[in-house]
Q: What sequence folds into this?
């Protein structure tokens, strides 16, 4: 310990005498360590940290498995059967999301609802901070409406009133009695349930008539807690048997359907995991490049200290003692760089979250916690050891006679070679990072060039919940929605408007089962054909600018009094009418029990996303459009006041129209609520958020790598020029021209750069196949990307060499000859 304390004090004195070197080394490491810490804090929160529930590894996400979807929403009657029949879960609970109009306390607003079954919070180990949770008796139709408030809504609407339990709130025109308040730190994420909820109500009280239909899946999912000692494999076998029994009992709804089980954490993380691991590997390369740069600095600096170490060796210091002293200095620099990097990581983490605010799962868990601090400490010490080891080993064996004779300058040959090796390593790693970033950029460019089948520019989308006083009468609902469209159409600057029901492209989905006219009705839904369905008003085609291929689109006369009609897309026609004209044909839609006539064919819309439409997970691509006014009463009379999603095409800047639209809607009734407003371009952009996030961070890391490697090669050539000043002066004195000296110095740098690029290409060819699953439209070994990045790196290296090489051509021979 006494020796260690001596080494620390001496290291501090040495660094204090060389503040420029210390500052550059610490800042270089801080960039690398800070970037690693920031990204590790995200990886730690999303992938490594367990869920914040008791025994989280025992909680399983449960969903249905169909021919087209590995993980689909479930029907509520099936869920009830799962609850009763399973023997491997101590408890199973259902959940779904909705939005209700909250009225009676100030301005009307739309609140996010979590519909959960009794036992949901108990599975997650959550207790109410005030009041209680739901009872099984309350989780049924016809019982008194009750609600549990989130801590946020309790504070915002009620000022955290302590007597909140027992009070009533009004949502969708229905009075609910508050029975409890949840903790402030509670949140839950799952499929179709990715935003914080304001109010929770029992899912069993949901009054939509189709919710109790075994054939209908209304966005419901489930979670379960495994019994002690039960494995996931055993639970799979148990639930598979239940699915088999249900298929026998209810063949129309459940034949061919299965039950999918997945650990809840895996369900939450979803497809973001491969992106994060690629980014963590990339940022590790940045840190290695930073370490190599500081090692180069150490090597250059050790030349001026060769006399010092020769004296120490001559006085009896052993090799291990010299190595320990140098490693102490390096680790001290590493720790200082880690401390500064931690400050940079705090800013970098928040910047990363802003780049992907909603699509990143568990974003609220991202923080610089104890594990992240330990990671930073370990990385700092390791970085110090890595960049300090090579210089320490080189310097610990000085040539005593030569070093003492030179009085401090020392020989430079071995150091020059070692520095050259480091630069080659830097260039190779920078090339790998740049190729990764280039492939992601190419993917995103290719994605943006994909035609989505509609024109998102200038289109606003928003949802409207009309006044609860309108009730749930189907005729009233139709009239209110017609009036809404007509009112919005009259706003100056609005070109086309259409109310819709169900879903928009890249935002939710609705699938219907059907069979073709003239075919016998299939024995079960699993044997029926399937299509995506959009229920829209006539202005939808103009608002979205979807091309009409043949026939006509929906019109105002296609109302509840007219014969049922529908429009299909090209994929529908190609798949189900391959050798005939579909116009004039009819299909039988199972859920609404009608046979609409096909009146037109429109272009295909990439509903699932620019990169996923038609893949294995999203194999339903056929699309059909039905008039909103022709939806049967039993379908259109759902619970709550009339609501609709609206698309509006705007002349000029679209975002500036939101205030006028909001004012118009609220002018129709003070209880009308506009919510979830965004441009359609944002919707398209959100569908590529994970790729965009990866591209941005890979680009940042690649830029850092390029900067650090450029500094590295600049430093080495500057060092070589300084060491060879005498030689250059002699060459000039003997008649060498400036171009000869310039060629000599640039040649030194280009040898290192080209060797690094060659090695980097070989490494990239081996590693980029790991990115195959996150690329689109470009090969992992795309020659254009490889060639372009290699050329860029060589040009940057050439520029980095040019400045010191140019300086070498200006050496004064008289000064150089006196250099000794």
A:
């Amino acid at each position: 310990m006494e020796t260690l304390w001596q080494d620390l004090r001496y290291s501090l004195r040495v660094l204090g005498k060389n503040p420029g070197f210390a500052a550059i080394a610490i800042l270089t490491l801080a960039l690398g360590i800070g970037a690693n810490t920031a990204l590790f804090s995200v990886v730690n929160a999303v992938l490594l940290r367990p869920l914040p529930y008791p025994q989280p590894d025992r909680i399983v996400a449960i969903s249905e498995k169909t021919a087209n979807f590995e993980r689909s929403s479930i029907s509520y009657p099936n869920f009830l059967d799962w609850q009763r029949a399973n023997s491997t879960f101590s408890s199973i609970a259902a959940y779904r999301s909705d939005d209700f109009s909250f009225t009676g306390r100030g301005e009307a607003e739309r609140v996010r609802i979590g519909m959960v079954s009794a036992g949901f919070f108990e599975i997650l180990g959550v207790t109410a901070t005030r009041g209680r949770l739901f009872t099984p008796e309350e989780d049924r139709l016809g019982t008194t409406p009750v609600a549990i408030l989130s801590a946020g809504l309790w504070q915002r609407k009620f000022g955290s009133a302590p007597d909140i339990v027992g009070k009533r709130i009004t949502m969708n025109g229905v009075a609910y009695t508050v029975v409890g308040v949840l903790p402030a730190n509670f949140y839950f994420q799952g499929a179709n349930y990715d935003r914080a909820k304001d109010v929770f109500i029992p899912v069993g009280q949901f009054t939509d008539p189709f919710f109790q239909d075994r054939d209908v899946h209304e966005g419901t999912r489930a979670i379960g807690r495994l019994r002690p000692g039960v494995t996931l494999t055993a639970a799979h076998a148990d639930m598979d048997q239940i699915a088999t029994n249900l298929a026998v009992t209810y063949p129309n709804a459940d034949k061919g359907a299965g039950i999918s089980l997945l650990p809840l954490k895996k369900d939450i993380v979803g497809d973001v995991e491969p992106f994060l691991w690629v980014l963590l590997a990339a940022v590790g390369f940045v840190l290695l490049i930073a370490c190599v740069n500081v090692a180069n600095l150490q090597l250059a600096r050790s030349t001026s200290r060769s006399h010092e170490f020769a004296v120490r060796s001559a006085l009896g210091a052993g090799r291990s003692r010299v190595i320990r002293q140098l490693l102490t200095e390096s680790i001290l620099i590493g720790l200082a760089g880690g401390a500064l990097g931690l400050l940079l990581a705090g800013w970098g983490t928040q910047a990363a979250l802003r780049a992907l605010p909603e699509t990143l799962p568990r974003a609220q868990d991202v923080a610089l916690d104890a594990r992240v601090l330990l990671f930073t400490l370990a990385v700092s010490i390791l970085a110090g050891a890595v960049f300090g080891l090579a210089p320490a080993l080189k310097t610990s064996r000085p040539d005593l006679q030569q070093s003492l004779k030179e009085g401090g300058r020392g020989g430079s040959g071995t150091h020059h070679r070692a520095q050259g090796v480091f630069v080659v390593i830097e260039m190779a790693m920078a090339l790998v990072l740049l190729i990764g970033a280039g492939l992601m950029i190419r993917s995103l460019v290719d994605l943006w060039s994909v035609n989505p089948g509609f024109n998102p520019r200038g289109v606003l989308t928003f949802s409207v919940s009309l006044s609860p006083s309108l009730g749930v009468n189907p005729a009233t609902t139709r009239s209110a929605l017609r009036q809404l469209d007509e009112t919005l159409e009259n706003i100056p600057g609005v070109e086309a408007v259409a109310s819709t029901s169900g879903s928009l492209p890249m935002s939710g989905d609705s699938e219907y089962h059907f069979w073709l006219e003239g075919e016998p009705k299939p024995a079960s839904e699993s044997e029926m054909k399937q299509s995506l369905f959009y229920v829209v008003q006539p202005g939808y085609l103009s608002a979205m600018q979807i091309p009409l291929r043949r026939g006509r689109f929906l019109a105002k006369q296609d109302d509840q009094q007219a014969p049922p009609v529908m429009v299909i897309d090209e994929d529908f026609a190609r798949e189900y009418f391959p050798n005939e004209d579909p116009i004039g044909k009819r299909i039988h839609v199972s859920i609404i029990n009608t046979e609409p006539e096909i009146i037109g064919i429109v272009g295909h819309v990439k509903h699932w996303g620019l990169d996923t439409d038609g893949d294995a997970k999203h194999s339903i691509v056929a699309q059909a459009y039905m008039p909103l006014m022709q939806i049967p009463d039993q379908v259109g009379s759902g619970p709550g006041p009339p609501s609709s999603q609206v698309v509006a095409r705007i002349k000029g800047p679209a975002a500036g129209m939101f205030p006028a639209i909001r004012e118009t809607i609220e002018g129709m009734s003070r209880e009308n609520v506009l919510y979830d407003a965004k441009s359609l371009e944002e919707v398209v952009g959100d569908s590529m958020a994970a790729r965009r996030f990866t591209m941005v961070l890979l680009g940042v890391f690649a830029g850092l790598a390029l900067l650090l490697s450029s500094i590295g090669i600049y430093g080495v050539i500057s060092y070589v020029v300084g060491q060879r000043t005498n030689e250059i002066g002699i060459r000039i004195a003997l008649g060498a021209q400036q171009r000869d000296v310039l060629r000599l110095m640039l040649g030194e740098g280009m040898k290192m750069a080209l060797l690094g690029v060659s090695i980097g290409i070989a490494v990239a060819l081996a590693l980029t196949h790991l990115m195959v699953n996150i690329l689109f439209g470009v090969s992992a070994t795309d020659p254009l990307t490889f060639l372009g990045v290699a050329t860029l790196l060589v040009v940057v290296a050439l520029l980095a060499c040019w400045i010191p090489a140019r300086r070498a051509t200006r050496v004064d021979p008289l000064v150089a000859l006196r250099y000794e």
